[in-house]
Amino acid sequence: QVQLAESGGGLVQAGGSLRLACAASGFTFTSKGMGWYRQAPGKEREFVAQISKDGVKDYADSVKGRFTISRDNGKNTVYLQMNSLEREDTAVYYCARCSGSICYGPYEFDYWGQGTQVTVSS
Predict the structure, then answer these.
(1) Are 2 and 18 in contact (CB under 8 A)?
(2) Residues contacting 43, CB < 8 A, separation 6+
């Protein structure tokens, strides 16, 4: 079955960096786009970034220039490098599998990980 396992979250000071990883299994990784979403306390889940099966990347405006999504098809893993972190980046970060090669909305992501907590302190 499809499994997505996030890792790499933690506590970091504002201005610092973290790299999240999402190890995928149970499907042909190279055939699917992958994405990251986040949910802060009291807020709805929001899009962060996605990468198509061909490596085309898309970012939320709030993270452009600070976050980088990448994928290692040999390791079935997608990464989110987060630099210049801000308190507003505090959230649970979720890895998601796109139902196709690229997704155009949250309803097109069909599998989700359990999430990893990122906390940015001032």
Answers:
(1) no
(2) 91
Unique residue bearing structure tokens 């987060």 = 82
Nearest Cα residue to 95 out of 112, 107, 110: 112
Per DSSP bridges, beta strands 67-72 and 18-25 are unpaired
Mean pLDDT, the chain, whole residue set: 97
What separation in angstroms does the CA of 116 have from each of 22, 31, 80, 95?
A: 10, 25, 12, 9
Q: Is the dihedral of CA 99, 105, 106, 112 positive or negative?
A: positive
Please state the φ and ψ torsions of residue 29, each to the nearest 5 degrees.
-60, -40
Strands 116-121 and 10-13: parallel
CB-based burial, 37-67: b 16+ in 10 Å, e otherwise: bbeeeeeebebbbbbbbeeeebbeeebeeeb
Write the pLDDT tens digit of every residue in 61-95. 999 999 999 999 999 999 999 999 999 999 999 99
In this prediction, the residues of the chain whose per-residue pLDDT falls under 50 are none
